[in-house]
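Treating backbone geometry as a discrete language has practical consequences that deserve illustration. In the encoding step, the backbone of a single protein was reduced to a row of integers, each denoting a local shape. The amino acid sequence and the backbone structure tokens for this protein are reproduced below.
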Amino acid sequence: MFTETKIKDYTQLNQMLKGLIEDETDRIANLSNASSLLNVFLEDINWVGFYLYEEETDELVLGPFQGLPACVRIQNGKGVCGLAFRGNDIFIVDDVTQFPGHIACDANSRSEIVVPIYRDGTPIGVLDIDSPIFDRFTEEDRKGLSDFVEVLKQYI
């Protein structure tokens, strides 16, 4: 559904996100709308959602998402989500079948991007997006989704 360059599209998407959530204080409502917005506007994806950090168990727990049912708990440091979260680094995986320790929740997923979410050093969770296409995610996606998370974390 993007018609301009990806960066301009992400800028517009991030403005839409802010307009959608800026007056709402409920974290789950804002994460739900954020996952829905990404699901509608990103092409060639089959799952988008959030895993939220649970300090007591040191795990990422399934939060709001769009797509098929998913893994409920991911240990910190395990799989793409856990490693990206532990290292506070965006991971782009071009072929999930080649990623050691990949946790397959949807057998149709071929590539993935995970964006950790920390606010003022406090761990919140990750944004996780899967695609049924190899090599789906680019550096433009990394930048655009990083900016998306920057907007989002102000309201969760």
Notes: The first strand starts at residue 47 and ends at 54. The helical segments are 6-21, 27-41, 79-87, 139-152. The first helix runs from residue 6 to 21.
